[in-house]
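Usage example:
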Amino acid sequence: MPEEKKVYRCEICGYEVEVEGELPEDFVCPLCGADRESFKEVKK
Ligand SMILES: [Zn+2]
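Running the assembly step on the lines above writes:
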């Protein structure tokens, strides 16, 4: 069964992160410090 990768983008600074499944609840943007709520999934 293939791993499902998702890309999330910080709406504040544009930082993108790729994770398997959901972004962790405590994820914080390493560039601008925005919390998870500022990240939106990028549909490829
Ligand atoms: Zn950011």
